[in-house]
Design a protein that fits this description.
single chain, alpha+beta, five-stranded antiparallel beta sheet, four-stranded antiparallel beta sheet, 14 helices, 11 strands, 49% helix, extended
């Protein structure tokens, strides 16, 4: 088999492939067998019809068409691998020549496909990353303690205008023109939470029980999502959350500790742990951001459009132009990230161990509420395991890259993130263990 590549665009190539008859012959033999098992020809049992009779009765065209359809994917994949292409979508294939008759000729085809572009990453030692210190202040502990007190607070009705943080039981009615399009009654809402309509917090602030006001807002959901409506809100009651005193009695109620001092000490440790974890998250996100800022990444438009179409079709929103623009922006960003991280993983020669893959699959199964074995089997049947390996490699690539960067906190001290990003030594040990296990398995089979 011969193949050649022509670059059409930075993200698109044309692959030309020539396959000799001898390489196509196994598929032709398979085509003869398949057709022989399907046709009824007097004087011959099914499956026993000779090729020459099939040529006479069915035609060489049907045979070679079956053979080409059967073999095309394999030849395309082989050629793409030989040319070291990294396809990002399905190819547009055109067959330009087929064997004219049994025993002679060749198969020729072209395949235009979008590929991962070649990009140049900045050297990691040129990147500086700063994260916040893990120093725990009294304000941090107090905030954590107050959040705990909130969980044990009680709602008490008040005879005053509603203020930020109050809980208000409300009735809502939305009108567009002269049509009432939505209404709800008796729902509890905390002013300042911002998880309902934009403008609701401002409308409720200063409203007493039994009072009504109207404001304009874009509806967040339903048939009229995104449309402007006149919203009437009535406060039927106003309540504030009274918090228990922060004392030893509260410590015994809310924790396993006997004193408030012991509870505060534990809260301090919790805050320190969270800040340490946040350092790793911030360092990872900052690194990705700086790599993206420093790298020109051509985006394959066809791959983006295919993902956008798939997404909108799954939501039955193909005609929603506003949502299409949002999804297109998200898909473009996601593909840029993928291209960058795949390139980074190759540059750093990142390898994904079996243990790392299994751990990722088990965590993913939990997120989907499935048994790990069932989840893994489903992925395997759908041919999705390689995609999962890619996900793990991308995540690991950022961790491996961070090991080569001097991350500092606000005070200029070097931050040790090995608890979160691992170490090269640990990776080497894991790879050695995996290689040993594979060699032992091979020896046992032999």
């Amino acid at each position: 088999m011969k193949s050649a590549v022509e670059t059409l665009e930075p993200t698109k190539v044309k692959l030309t492939v020539e396959v000799d008859y001898d390489e196509l012959k196994p598929s032709i033999d398979h085509a003869y067998k398949h057709i022989a098992s399907e046709v009824n020809i007097p004087g011959f049992r099914k499956g026993k019809v000779p090729p020459r009779i099939i040529d006479q009765r069915v035609g060489w065209g049907a045979v070679v068409e079956h053979a080409v359809n059967d073999a095309l994917g394999g030849f395309y994949g082989q050629a793409a691998a030989e040319q070291k292409l990294r396809p990002l979508g399905q190819p547009a294939v055109e067959v330009t020549e087929i064997p004219a008759k049994a025993g002679e000729g060749q198969l020729k085809f072209t395949a235009e496909v979008e590929v991962r572009p070649e990009i140049t990453l900045p050297e990691l030692d040129t990147i500086d990353i700063a994260v916040e210190s893990t120093e725990v202040t009294e304000a941090d502990v107090t905030e954590r303690l107050d959040a705990l007190r909130e969980r044990f607070g009680t709602l008490v009705g008040v005879d005053r205008p509603a203020a930020d943080g109050d809980y208000v039981v409300i009735d809502l009615k939305a009108v567009i023109g002269d049509e009432e399009v939505d209404s709800v009654s008796g729902i509890s809402y905390q002013i300042g939470s911002g998880n309902m309509l934009e403008g609701l917090d401002e409308a409720l602030t200063g409203l007493s029980a039994g009072e009504t006001t109207t404001f304009k807002a874009d509806l967040a959901g339903g048939e009229h999502a995104g449309e402007a409506a006149d919203v009437t809100v009535t406060a039927t009651s106003v309540k504030q959350r009274d918090l228990p005193d922060a004392d030893d009695d509260f410590a015994q109620l809310a924790s396993e500790f006997d004193t408030l001092d012991e509870l505060n000490a534990d809260l301090r440790e919790q805050v320190a742990s969270i800040k340490k974890s946040n350092q790793a998250v911030t360092a990872r996100d900052t690194l990705l951001e700086k790599l993206l800022e420093s790298t020109e990444i051509p985006v394959p438009s066809g791959a983006v459009e295919a993902e956008v179409h798939r997404h909108l079709e799954s939501e039955d929103r193909l005609e929603d132009d506003k949502h299409r623009a949002e999804v297109t922006e998200d898909a473009t960003k996601a593909l840029k990230n993928q291209i960058l991280l795949d390139t980074l993983a190759e540059k750093l020669q990142v390898k994904v161990g079996q243990g790392e893959l299994v751990e990722y699959l088990v965590q993913s199964a939990r997120q989907y509420g499935m048994e790990p074995q069932q989840f893994i089997q489903s992925l395997d049947q759908g041919g999705q395991i390689p995609a999962m390996v890619g996900e793990v490699a991308r995540s690991k690539a950022l961790a491996v890259a961070l090991r080569q960067i001097d991350v500092k906190d606000g005070e200029g001290s070097t931050v040790d993130l090995s608890e979160f990003i691992g170490s090269d030594e640990a990776d080497a040990a894991a790879e050695a263990l995996q290689d040993a296990a594979a060699e032992a398995a091979e020896a046992e089979e032999a």
